[in-house]
């Protein structure tokens, strides 16, 4: 009778492993599993939902901060207050008493718009003019005479020269209504092109998390997360935005760090209303398997012929049974194989 040795590998949660050898039976038949002594330590196969989760530090605030950059030279004649909320049609700031108006749109203003202009920025402008009650034109991506007439009406209402032209700097496009985060310019101060006037955020509370680049798998757009607040309460959130940021080196002898910045949206704003800023814990679920059979990771043995197995015991004897592994999480591993079912006793190597 040929005898074989099987290496038993005890897997630790961090991926470390230690190996020892146990005798296997006659290997002339691959399916034959020789009975061995009953293991001293056993655990039962459980049926459960297995989640691969990780918790990271987060900061509750208002999410991403954006800067408003001035486009023309002049004197600052009006700025908002920090914390002030602005909506479509509101003045964000003024230079030489000419307002920069907030409008909604994903594409930043980048050029002068006039009769003959075409593009997404024209569509954004016309959508906003229409929403503010200015009509007489077709809402599309073409700036026509009719668009210019609507612009003239808007300019008249603002007390501006009725040129029918939207100069660069007269509109700030933002995704929605905004909250002024900080004001960098002062009324009465001179300002030139490309100088920061203020910074702004969205108006809803959100959580910002910076993950290591190796943990990017956790940051799946629209994935659900759990946010634990300072008082211990947990509220649901979802991944709204994922971006890569470079953290400058703290000293010349260190390298910059690459981080994955994740913005977590909180739908239940009442649950976070008590905090303007707070440190929170965010639990990400990288993957989930429902109603699967699991055993402690330490129950796995590495079979010499390849793959893994477990030592199945019936209380009087035991045998090694090959299994297929799935998700590893929380010290447990998903398994499947012939004869493996919930409640089956498996050995735990010492």
Task: Describe the overall structure.
The chain is mostly beta strands and 350 residues long. The chain contains 2 helices and 23 strands. It has a 6-stranded antiparallel beta barrel with strand order 4-14-17-16-15-18. Strands 10-9-8-6-12 form a 5-stranded mixed beta sheet. A 4-stranded antiparallel beta sheet has the order 5-13-11-7, with no helix packed on it. Strand 8 and strand 9 form a beta hairpin. The longest helix is centred in the middle third of the chain and has 14 residues. It is elongated. The N terminus is likely disordered.
Can you summarize this structure?
This protein has 350 residues and is mainly beta.
Rg? 32 Å
Number of DSSP-assigned strands: 23
Shape: elongated
Mean pLDDT: 88
The amount of beta strand, in percent, is: over 45%
Please tally the helical runs, counting DSSP H or I stretches of 4 or more residues.
Answer: 2
Uncertain residue ranges: 1-34
Give the end-to-end Cα distance, rounded to a whole number of Å. 29 Å
Order of helices and strands: EEEEEEEEEHHEEEEEEEEEEEEEE
- Report strand order across the widest sheet: 4-14-17-16-15-18
Helix content: under 10%
Biggest sheet overview: 6 strands, antiparallel, barrel
Summarize the SSE layout with pairings.
Blueprint: E1 4-11, E2 17-24, E3 42-44, E4 46-61, E5 66-69, E6 74-78, E7 85-86, E8 91-95, E9 98-104, H1 120-131, H2 145-158, E10 171-174, E11 178-183, E12 190-191, E13 196-202, E14 206-212, E15 224-228, E16 234-247, E17 257-265, E18 278-296, E19 301-302, E20 308-313, E21 318-329, E22 332-336, E23 345-347
Parallel strand pairs: 9-10
Antiparallel strand pairs: 1-2, 3-23, 4-14, 4-18, 5-13, 6-8, 6-12, 7-11, 8-9, 11-13, 14-17, 15-16, 15-18, 16-17, 18-22, 19-20, 20-21, 20-23, 21-22
